[in-house]
Amino acid sequence: MFNFLKGDKSMVTATKIGASDTATKIGTSDTATANDIVKVSPEELVKRMVASNPNVMGKMPERRLKSIVRGTLVALAQEVNECQEGRLQVPGLGRITIRQTEVEKDGSPATVKRVMLNPAKPKPKV
């Protein structure tokens, strides 16, 4: 199942979109298939951060924290898009491996960029 679903199932706020493009909430009995897309918005990430650590915001407004998370995700996406090949290590997220591979489309060879994520392992609580 999804790495972010481990733990308290009541905190799950990701949205699963199936082939029929109908959005439904992920429950404990749902399983992902190859046609499913899981969307996690910055707002949902902020809610999850606050649920796991209520002091993470301090006196910062929630709107500003959402903006920071959104900006961080945009910067990470730009970094992945600019990198043609290699590895990116993102603390807390994991290692992103980017490769250019040759595939055959319609009988002609084409180069495809493959991006793979090896998620970071959670630190054990002591």
Automatic annotation (TrEMBL):
<protein>
    <recommendedName>
        <fullName>DNA-binding protein</fullName>
    </recommendedName>
</protein>
